[in-house]
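Changelog-adjacent note: as of this version, every example in the card shows the full chain rather than a window. The one below runs 137 residues end to end.
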Amino acid sequence: MASSYREGDKLPTVERLITQERIQRYAEASGDFNPIHIDPGFAALSQFGGTIAHGMLIAALVSEAMAVGFTRDWVETGRLKLRFRAPVKPGDRVATFGKVKRVREADGGSEIVCSVGVSKPDGESAVTGEAVVRART
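Full-length structure tokens:
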């Protein structure tokens, strides 16, 4: 239950293997066909040396982890502020991380502020940021 979270508590983890097929499906769903994501020949000549996942595909994992932890409260009141720090490539298995930074009473419930992110296999953070959710009591 969302209102049972306390400062310092860890948030649920979501893990995904990022594949070129997953990136392609995201491109089709989002309409973002930037060749850095879907054209291996083009991407090979880039600073990344190959295709990379869409940032929002990776950011969506943070939202999924928050939905696991806060269910309907996240869907109805959640806010994210994220920074993209490093590219994610096909073959990377990424995992979300997060911790409750502070909890305060607010309007018949609690406002819960969390530090959140997504880490790459080498431990580097691909995404970091803050999530805020209002939990009902």
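Structural remarks: The first strand starts at residue 15 and ends at 17.
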